[in-house]
Amino acid sequence: MSRMASNPVNAADKTRSYFTTGDGVRIAYCTEGPADSPVLVLSNSIATDLEMWDRQVPELAEHFRVVRYDMRGHGESGVPNGAYSIDRLGRDVLELLDSLGIHHAHFLGLSLGGFVGQWLGIHAPERIDRLILSNTASYLGPARQWDEAIAAVLEAKDMQQTAERFLRNWFPARMLEPESAVVEPFRATLLSTDRQGLAGAYAAVRDTDMRRTIALITAPTLIIAGEHDPVTTVSHSEAMAATIPGAKLTVMPAAHMTHIEFPAEFMKAVINFLLS
User: Cα–Cα–Cα angle for 79, 120, 242, nearest 5°?
Assistant: First the structure.
């Protein structure tokens, strides 16, 4: 199986546009690909921004109108104080689609983006054509660990320790060599992440439990898991696949960022599923 080359693929133009949600938060987004193609929304992991999809967008834009965005609290989107909720994160996507005049779309979410995808599949089934849930879960309890994480990130003097912990969870040790062309952009994004935004997103994960309600998802669903993912384990993906009617499960020998570690296999699975 192929792995990510050290030289990044040139991504499409990432000039961001903005819209304001009903609760007054400015959300940054960008669109690539033909305006008349089927729409594919990309939703990113916690502590990243829309650039985590840079290597995938050029190929995806050959088939789809790609819409990607910075989740609230991340990137160039606004950072409201306090806890965020999965309901609010899902409604941000619906309002983004509404602002673009898009009634329905495919959706690909990784990690926290996969939480958002599940919420959309449950609560807005008429808006989702096909759903891909990568390296995610329906529940990541207990709540106590998230309370501790929230306190730790808000009390820390900077994001250095948090960034290194995320990177160890996201990538295998062999990819964490100094100044890695693949990993360094993720480290830079982590170090620049607003701690209030991260804490707000932690709260959304803490308060979410969709283990039973994902049985209501009707969209054709592909679940992608990393065999060595220490965050959202294969067992999480197996449980989702057993609960979502007709869901397909693909397991790759990756850690958490499967789309980075096994880009060719990831893209083949995604495109074949979306075009089938």
Answer: 125
Q: Cβ(12)–Cβ(61) under 8 Å? A: yes
Give the SS3 label for residue 66: strand
Strands of the sheet containing 221-226, edge to edge, are 17-20, 26-32, 65-69, 39-43, 105-110, 128-134, 221-226, 248-252
Residue 72's contacts (CB-CB under 8 Å, 6 or more residues apart) are: 21, 25, 27, 78, 79, 80, 84, 88, 89, 92, 197, 200
Cα–Cα dist 250/255, whole Å: 14
Strand extents, DSSP E, 37-191: 39-43, 65-69, 105-110, 128-134
Mean pLDDT value across residues 189-208: 98
In 185-199, which positions are buried (b, 16+ CB within 10 angstroms) versus exposed (e)?
bbbebbeebebebbb
pTM for this prediction: 0.94
38: tokens are 């089927």
